[in-house]
From TrEMBL:
SUPFAM superfamilies: P-loop containing nucleoside triphosphate hydrolases. This is ABC transporter, ATP-binding protein. Belongs to the ABC transporter superfamily. Keywords: ATP-binding, Nucleotide-binding, Transport. It comes from Amycolatopsis azurea DSM 43854. It comes from the Bacteria. Pfam families: ABC_tran. InterPro entries: AAA+_ATPase, ABC_transporter-like_ATP-bd, ABC_transporter-like_CS, P-loop_NTPase. GO terms for molecular function: ATP binding; ATP hydrolysis activity.
Amino acid sequence: MIEIRELTKRYGPTVAVDDLSFRVEPGYVTGFLGPNGAGKSTTMRAVLGLDTPTSGDALINGRHYAAIDRPLHQVGALLDASAVHGGRTAFDHLYCLARSNGIRKARVRAVLDRVGLAGVAGKRIGGFSLGMKQRLGIAAALLGDPGVFLFDEPGNGLDPEGIRWIRDLMRSLAAEGRTVLVSSHLMSEMELTADHIVVVGRGRLIAEASISELAERFRRDVLVRTPDVAELTRLLRSAGAVVTRQPDGSLAAQGLDAVTIGDIAVRNHIAVHELTPRSDSLEDAYLKLTDDSIEYRAERANP
Ligand SMILES: Nc1ncnc2c1ncn2[C@@H]1O[C@H](COP(=O)(O)OP(=O)(O)OP(=O)(O)O)[C@@H](O)[C@H]1O
């Protein structure tokens, strides 16, 4: 488990993380979302002991990173995949890390195989594409078979097949009961990958919810198709709904849920051909949530 407790990090006058608290539970992929400069990387760096908090705590399984003996066995992380020594081979890079944590050569071969780099194990990292470096970073994270993972924008530089691969990997790590925290700017990607999301803006917590709770929170209306438009409109309005007739003849009802609308129709012997609860897309929901916390914004095209 990862626990962020009242974490604050200042860089001079900049407050990168501002009294942030949340927990990342095992068995789920938790998406860590926020616009540029929201404080995601700073939070992850604090968890990994790479940044000292101004105040508060960032804990892995109840302990500070610095207090963990042989940390690769507890936590695997992918932060900046390009920050590797280009002169080393993939194998040597991983073996160096492995040795410092008492991990055997056979495990290095196994993780290279798992990330699809076995064929280039003897090649220098300097010649690797960004996507290959991402895979190498993920191999390093897997080395100690840890229970906790942090991935900072792991899809960066990967092609669509690579993005699907990393998504499947994160989902399978969570299904094995591990804790997975993954940062992203893209709600569309998190919708496919994450079970829960934590949204931050300007270093503060904006929302913490499961993907399904978020869809529910941003429920827009219920689309109703019926051959008896006039009568159902009257009944729904008298039950308190705001009903709008759509150009295609269907109704958009706000203020009543689909179950209540269906029950009203049945009680009054009105046929219903479609009853669909509609939510804002999660992308829209996310943009609404973070609207006030965009650090740099292009002027809108149509003011
Ligand atoms: N070493 C540093 N020195 C000074 N300011 C920093 C430093 N690291 C981060 N910041 C500032 O702290 C804020 C949060 O940055 P951070 O990189 O944590 O955000 P982020 O959510 O990861 O953004 P991105 O999605 O762009 O990576 C930003 O305003 C950033 O400029």
